[in-house]
Each structure stands twice: as C-alpha cells, then as structure tokens.
Design goal:
Length: 126
Amino acid sequence: MSDSPATVPPAPSAPPSADTGATYAFLTLRLWLGLRALIAGIEKFGDTRSKQIPLLDATGEPDISGATVEVQEKFYAFSNYHAVPDALRDKLALEPLMPSWMTTPFYAVLGGLLIALGLTLLLGLW
C-alpha cells in the first residue's frame, strides 16, 4: 500500500443531448417573439415631425445662401398613441372581426399589452 491518495480520473464531459437543438430553437423563438411584440408596442407611440435645419457646407458651417433642408424626425410620446392606422380602423368598422363595443377597449390597451407581452417573453416570466 502506498501513502499517496488515490486519484480519480476526470469524468468525460457529457455529450450534448438531443434536446439541446430544441432548447436553442425555443430560446430563439422566444427572443424573436419577445422583441417583435416589444417593438410593435413601442411603435404604437411613435410619430414623425418635419424640421427645417440649415444646409451645411463642406466645412460644417451653415451655407451662406441661407438654404434650409427639411428633415423628418421620429419621436415617441404618449400623446402619439395610435393602436391601428386609420385606414385599418375604418376597414375593421366595415368588416368587423369583433363586436363594435369591443373595439374601443381593444384599441385602448393594445400598445400596453404588446409591450407587457414582449417584456414577459424576454424575461422568461411567461
């Protein structure tokens, strides 16, 4: 008998299971659906506005002619909320997929629900 402690050979690493591919597919789907719902909900609060800025010359200074350029600028605010575009809202009124008394509450909560759904999917809460 020797006084040295017995060494245990390292265990071989476990081979990847067949469920690894399914897990990655599920996580990819969850990420995609979560981001898609979150961005769609945020875009319900977006709008654009036109802004005129002076034309800049090659040195970055305003052009001496005083010319201006109209630039479209995207901004987000609660006051910009539009659940669906007006054309789609009119079409849904003519060919209803849900009773007319349900459309007003549906339009009111759609943006918030999409944001909440996106966050819960991304955080793994649902």
